[in-house]
């Protein structure tokens, strides 16, 4: 099959699915809607798998394909696709998770009235995300980037009748917009510098040194600002936990596995740009490292099951950024992949937990699930172990790669930060696990049932979470494959034995502490928070970042808005009213002239005649 | 004697007539004023016939026609006025405001 | 400017024409106004004589001073009038009319005095009644006939209009 056909096979079904569901939302039953969604994403998944097979197993170099969309000053602006290993890998991740989430949503969203709307949004999102990951130029990336942003907005605000959901949707949209402005400026700068949006052209220009290094750094940092917004890095992370107001499948698909990884993907996709700008790499590394530990500490004190996972996502994305910033291209991308699987698994499992507890999200009101649902417990445990980085689960390998990359890069401080963050990760994940699954059931009455449509996707993701590490270890096949997409090879990291050992030990320590506090209850959690209440409060309130933004940004902006509104009301509105008033007065005068008396008309004609003659004469005299 | 004097005389008469047309409340007076304006025009025609660039009898012929038409106009005007007077009960021009929108 | 007989005659005639017109504007009784207008028409007939148009002058007297004035007087008599116009009050409409007409007058006068009129004094044209008759019945035959039809139409139209409308069933 032709590559173009294959790519169309990947892209078109979801778009078609979106259109069909959108147009047929009156007539289609829920089952049919779900079927359309699953089939279209299934075709997409098959297409992606074929591409993956061609690229990964048969080691084919897949061609890129372009067509000129418009020309600006003889500078063609192109559309097309590119199938470097990174793009293909992203295709696989997106289509797999999307397929499974489509399936899962049938169980989760069954009772919702706007079921088909939900599916149409999902399909649109999948299409946009697929388009994003195969874009060969910055403009196309930007278009799809905004499209996924819109879908995220729509889906976070899906339950728009809830005030929190509405606010969260707006917040998600506006906060990411801040990052997008940076991205947009970066794109504009690139076009100004090289007159093209093509990544290839930019790469060549950098290799030839036709862009000054300061400009490269500026562009790289601005691109990273876009990534910060999308991937929920500090200081623009605040939208991501709030985005958990959306339905849980959405959280799994968009806010864990795919869209938030778009920022990481963007940095990875323009990695040569960052390599050419060491300062930008530093920024990436430090922001990533800081976010990793920052979000992990917040995660400790949260009580909402989805928010804990959200902060975990922020933290893990920080890890990926840290890896990329430490020239750990492979490590970052590898972790992106494994994280997509296990975090999607965790979110879907959390959704199942919420179904069982009748949409309760507070973990303090849960407990004892182990006795009720062994399968779910097992699945959740797999996710926890994977994110904690216990061998042989996939998280172990990717996290190990990251730590190794940081170590090799020589930033020992960041390495320590990453290890401490790993400790916190283990702690909050197992805090969550022990609180929810062990102990006694605190909720009375009948517990909910998990539909089979929800269990199956979780099992698949659990399997992937277990085995995904095997693509890299021990054969290094992922890294050698990804290397092919890079212009110049990156030095691979020599494995070192003590880093994984330390990482695992630290994770086990975190697990153990969590067990002591929340599992066997040997140590009272209350006493700990009692000794340092201010720290606990600080963590619960997420370091007061939201409050800080509120007082530093939102209230001043509202003040300015209020002033501008007054300006608008009084001055602009006044001018408009003045204009209207003058016209009205003129109209009244006109009406008064129309009094039906021929003599008045004659008088007006005389005036008109005089004016006419005078103006004619004036024209002649002035000439 | 020159043309300008006659034209000025005609202009003065014309303007008096125009003023009367606009301001007089009595409809008969309006008709009077119109006649006055027509006469002012006649003076112009005859003056041009004698003192124009090409002195020509045509000006006088035109004046004759104008007089004939003015006479017809006066007759019809008076007739309309009488009809209006019968219908509206008044001869005051500012009471005729049925053209008002 | 040389004082000639023509100038004196023109002066007297124009003063009486303008005076008649002004009187017409300012008199209070309608019948007096009609008489003032007749006087103005008469003066204009004099102006026509000055302009070498004796036939027109006679026509003017016959039609205007005679027929039209009498017609007007009939019109006055057939309609009821509050004989006195309202006492001259300061009226915003009158002021505007004065301004408008004044501006018009100023413009026209300015044009008249600005325009260079060439008067060919040399050619002496024959303005006799004979020439006038020739011109009307040769050159302007068709318009003459049309005018006669117009007069007929006006006659019938005026009669129809002025006739008391019969009540329709």
From TrEMBL, chain A:
Residues in NADH:quinone oxidoreductase/Mrp antiporter transmembrane domain copies: 135-425
Superkingdom: Bacteria
Molecular function via GO: NADH dehydrogenase (ubiquinone) activity; NADH dehydrogenase activity
Topology of this chain in the membrane: Multi-pass membrane protein
Entry's transmembrane regions: 6-23, 35-57, 88-106, 118-135, 141-161, 173-191, 211-229, 250-273, 279-301, 308-334, 340-357, 378-397, 412-434, 455-477, 497-518, 548-564, 601-622
Limits of the NADH-Ubiquinone oxidoreductase (complex I) chain 5 N-terminal domain: 69-119
Keyword Membrane part of the UniProt annotation: yes
InterPro entries reported for this sequence: NADHpl_OxRdtase_5_subgr (IPR018393), ND/Mrp_TM (IPR001750), NU5C-like (IPR003945), Proton_antipo_N (IPR001516)
Principal place of residence: membrane
BP GO terms, sorted: ATP synthesis coupled electron transport; electron transport coupled proton transport
Single GO cellular component term: plasma membrane
Localization (cell): Cell membrane; Membrane
Record's keyword terms, sorted: Membrane, Transmembrane, Transmembrane helix
PANTHER family xref list: NADH-UBIQUINONE OXIDOREDUCTASE CHAIN 5
Assigned protein family: Belongs to the CPA3 antiporters (TC 2.A.63) subunit A family.
Protein name according to UniProt: NADH-quinone oxidoreductase subunit L
Species per Swiss-Prot/TrEMBL record: Thermoflavimicrobium daqui
Source organism phylogeny: Bacteria, Bacillati, Bacillota, Bacilli, Bacillales
UniProtKB/TrEMBL annotation, chain B:
Pfam families: Oxidored_q2
Predominant subcellular localization, coarse grouping: membrane
Chemical reaction(s) catalysed: a quinone + NADH + 5 H(+)(in) = a quinol + NAD(+) + 4 H(+)(out)
One GO MF term attached to the UniProt entry: NADH dehydrogenase (quinone) (non-electrogenic) activity
Localization per Swiss-Prot or TrEMBL: Cell membrane; Membrane
Any one GO biological process: ATP synthesis coupled electron transport
Alphabetized InterPro entries for the sequence: NADH_UbQ_OxRdtase_chain4L/K (IPR001133), NUOK/Mnh_C1-like (IPR039428)
Membrane-topology descriptor: Multi-pass membrane protein
Origin superkingdom: Bacteria
Main enzyme class: translocase
Protein name per its UniProtKB record: NADH-quinone oxidoreductase subunit K
Organism: Thermoflavimicrobium daqui
From TrEMBL, chain C:
MF terms (GO), sorted A to Z: NADH dehydrogenase (ubiquinone) activity; quinone binding
Residues passing through the membrane, by range: 6-27, 34-55, 61-79, 95-113, 140-162
Its EC number(s): 7.1.1.-
Role played: NDH-1 shuttles electrons from NADH, via FMN and iron-sulfur (Fe-S) centers, to quinones in the respiratory chain. Couples the redox reaction to proton translocation (for every two electrons transferred, four hydrogen ions are translocated across the cytoplasmic membrane), and thus conserves the redox energy in a proton gradient.
Location in the cell: Cell membrane
EC top class, as a word: translocase
Pfam families: Oxidored_q3 (PF00499)
PANTHER family listed in its UniProt record: NADH-UBIQUINONE OXIDOREDUCTASE CHAIN 6
Family the entry assigns: Belongs to the complex I subunit 6 family.
InterPro entries reported for this sequence: NADH_UbQ/plastoQ_OxRdtase_su6, Nuo/plastoQ_OxRdtase_6_NuoJ
Organism: Thermoflavimicrobium daqui
Protein name according to UniProt: NADH-quinone oxidoreductase subunit J
């Amino acid at each position: 099959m032709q590559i173009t056909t294959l790519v169309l096979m990947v892209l078109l079904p979801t778009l078609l699915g979106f259109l069909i569901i959108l147009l047929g939302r009156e007539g289609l039953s829920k089952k049919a809607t779900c079927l359309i969604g699953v089939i279209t994403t299934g075709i997409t998944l098959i297409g992606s798998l074929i591409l993956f097979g061609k690229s990964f197993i048969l080691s084919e170099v897949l061609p890129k394909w372009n067509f000129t969309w418009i020309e600006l000053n003889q500078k063609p602006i192109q559309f097309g696709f590119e199938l470097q290993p990174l793009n293909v890998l992203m295709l696989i991740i997106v289509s797999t998770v999307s397929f499974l989430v489509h399936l899962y949503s049938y169980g989760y969203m069954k009772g919702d009235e706007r079921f088909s709307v939900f599916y149409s949004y999902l399909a649109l999102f999948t299409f946009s995300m697929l388009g994003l990951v195969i874009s060969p130029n910055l403009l196309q990336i930007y278009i799809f980037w905004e499209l996924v942003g819109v879908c995220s907005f729509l889906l976070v605000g899906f339950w728009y009748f809830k005030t929190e959901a509405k606010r969260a949707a707006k917040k998600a949209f506006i906060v990411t917009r801040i990052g997008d402005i940076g991205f947009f400026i970066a794109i504009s700068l690139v076009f100004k510098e090289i007159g093209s949006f093509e990544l290839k052209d930019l790469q060549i220009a950098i290799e030839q040194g036709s862009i000054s290094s300061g400009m490269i750094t500026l562009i790289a940092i601005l691109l990273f600002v876009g990534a910060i917004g999308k991937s929920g890095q500090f200081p623009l992370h605040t939208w991501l936990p709030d985005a958990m107001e959306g339905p849980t499948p959405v959280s799994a698909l968009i806010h864990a596995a795919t869209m938030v990884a778009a920022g990481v993907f963007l940095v990875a996709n323009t990695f040569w740009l960052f390599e050419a700008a060491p300062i930008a790499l530093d920024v990436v590394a430090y922001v990533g490292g800081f976010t990793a530990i920052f979000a992990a500490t917040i995660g400790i004190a949260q009580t909402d099951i989805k928010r804990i996972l959200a902060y975990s996502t922020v933290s893990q994305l920080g890890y990926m950024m840290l890896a990329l910033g430490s020239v750990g291209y492979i490590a970052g991308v590898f972790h992106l992949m494994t994280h997509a699987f296990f975090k999607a698994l965790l979110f879907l499992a959390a959704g199942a937990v919420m179904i069982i507890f009748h949409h309760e999200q507070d973990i303090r009101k849960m407990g004892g699930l182990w006795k009720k649902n062994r399968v779910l417990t097992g699945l959740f445990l797999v996710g926890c172990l994977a994110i904690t980085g216990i061998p042989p689960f996939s998280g172990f390998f990717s996290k190990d790669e990251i730590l190794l990359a940081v170590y090799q890069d020589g930033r020992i401080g960041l390495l320590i930060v990453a290890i401490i963050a790993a400790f916190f990760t283990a702690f909050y994940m197992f805090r969550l696990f022990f609180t929810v699954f062990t102990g006694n059931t605190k909720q009375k009455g009948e517990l909910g049932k998990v539909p089979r449509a929800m269990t199956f996707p979780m099992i698949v993701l659990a399997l992937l979470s277990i085995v995904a590490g095997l693509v890299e270890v021990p054969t290094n096949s992922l890294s050698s494959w990804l290397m092919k997409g890079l212009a110049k090879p990156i030095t691979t990291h020599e494995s070192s034995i003590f880093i994984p050992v330390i990482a695992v030990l630290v994770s086990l320590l975190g697990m153990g502490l969590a067990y002591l506090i929340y599992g066997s209850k040997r140590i009272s959690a209350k006493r700990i928070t009692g000794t340092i209440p201010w720290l606990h409060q600080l963590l619960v309130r997420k370091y007061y970042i939201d409050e800080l933004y509120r007082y530093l940004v939102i209230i001043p902006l509202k003040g300015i808005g209020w002033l501008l509104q007054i300006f608008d009301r009084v001055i602009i509105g006044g001018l408009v009213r003045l204009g209207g008033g003058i016209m009205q007065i003129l109209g009244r005068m006109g009406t008064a002239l129309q009094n039906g008396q021929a003599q008045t008309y004659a008088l007006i004609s005389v005036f008109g005649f005089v004016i006419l003659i005078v103006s004619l004469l004036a024209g002649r005299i002035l000439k | 004697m020159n043309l300008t004097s006659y034209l000025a005389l005609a202009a003065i008469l014309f303007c008096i007539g125009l003023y009367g047309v606009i301001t007089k409340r009595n409809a008969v007076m309006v008709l009077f004023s119109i006649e006055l304006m027509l006469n002012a025009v006649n003076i112009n025609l005859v003056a041009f016939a004698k003192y124009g660039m090409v002195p020509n009898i045509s000006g006088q012929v035109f004046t004759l026609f104008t007089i004939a038409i003015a006479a017809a106009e006066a007759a019809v005007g008076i007739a309309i006025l009488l009809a209006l007077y019968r219908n509206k009960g008044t001869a005051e021009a500012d009471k005729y405001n049925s053209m008002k929108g | 400017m040389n004082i000639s007989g023509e100038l004196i005659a023109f002066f007297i005639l124009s003063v009486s024409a303008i005076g008649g017109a002004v009187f017409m504007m300012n008199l209070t009784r309608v019948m007096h106004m009609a008489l003032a207008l007749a006087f103005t028409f008469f003066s204009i007939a004099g102006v026509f004589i000055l302009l070498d148009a004796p036939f027109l002058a006679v026509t003017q007297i016959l039609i205007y001073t005679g027929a039209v004035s009498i017609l007007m007087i009939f019109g006055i008599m057939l309609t009821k009038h509050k004989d006195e116009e309202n006492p001259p009050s300061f009226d915003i409409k009158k002021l505007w009319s004065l301004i408008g007409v004044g501006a018009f007058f100023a413009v026209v006068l300015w044009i008249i005095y600005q325009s260079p009129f060439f008067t060919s004094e040399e050619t002496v044209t024959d303005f006799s009644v004979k020439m006038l008759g020739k011109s009307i019945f040769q050159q302007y035959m068709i318009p003459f006939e049309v005018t006669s039809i117009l007069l007929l139409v006006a006659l019938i139209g005026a009669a129809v209009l002025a006739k008391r409308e019969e009540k329709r069933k």
